[in-house]
Amino acid sequence: MQTKIVELSYSDKFFAVVSSGKAEDDTIRIFNTKDALAWGVRSYPEGGKKEFPAPVFEVKAPRDHTINSLKWGYLDKYLIYATDRGRIIRYDIEAKKIDDAKDVHKSEIFSIEQTIDFSMLLTCSRDGTCKLLNPQ
């Protein structure tokens, strides 16, 4: 497994890690920040460290899609991610399912950004265009 993206939630309670493997689809793993920090600063009498905390949950990328960019949504309720096939996906964390998926570009989306108030989502694609979208 190779880690490609790490994104801290706006509340700092969680962080998302996107990783991929040769024979696997991309996976988003959500970790509790407090648990990860505690793991990193503990000292153990036996001299070793315990296993890194398990993810709170995991999200598999759509088959045949590679995740290129990921952002947390409003109040950490959503993950918004972009794929190499021009698709934007909004994942509802509480419901643990895809809330919305749209093909917004003809080619790979390599970057997404949100405004600080979460009212706009900007995308940049290999098709030579940038788009301004409503993330809702």
From TrEMBL:
UniProt-recorded name of the protein: Uncharacterized protein
